Amino acid sequence: MQIQRSIETKLAENLTPEHLEVVNESHMHSVPPGSESHFKVIVVSPQFDGLNRVRRHQAVNAVLADELAGPVHALSMETYTAPEWQARGGRTLASPQCMGGSKADQA
Q1: Which residues have a Cβ under 8 Å from the Cβ of 83 and sit 6 or more positions away?
Q2: Are strands 19-24 and 38-44 parallel, antiparallel or unpaired?
Q3: pLDDT digits over 52-101, tens only?
Q4: pLDDT at residue 106 above 50?
Q5: Fewest Cβ atoms nearer than 10 Å: which of 2, 4, 58, 68?
Q6: Helix (H/G/I), strand (E/B), else coil: 4
Q7: Cβ neighbours of residue 20 closer than 8 Å, sequence gap 6 or more
Q8: DSSP states of 29-95 as a string?
């Protein structure tokens, strides 16, 4: 939970979100139990006003540069303004199942 907490803290401090979810999705991938390598973040922030999706993702990536350069292998993100989040009714997108294999699956 150390990496997840770091992600939560950094996003909260830097993006002042109105809504923030950080979900550890590592269990959905071929990694050891208890891993913190695959995350999904849902961020609703006034700082996203006027920014397109690419710029929003760049902002999140900049805040989490250390994590992305190290322990985090994959980061999925949904970035919204308050009106966009309200229009969605607070619904998020479902994460796809891992399509990768394990080294143990090799023939």
Answers
A1: none
A2: antiparallel
A3: 999 999 999 999 999 999 999 889 999 999 999 999 999 998 887 766 65
A4: no
A5: 2
A6: helix
A7: 8, 11, 12, 41, 42, 43, 44
A8: SSS-TT---EEEEEEE-GGGTT--HHHHHHHHHHHTHHHHHTT--EEEEEEE-HHHHHHTTT--PPP
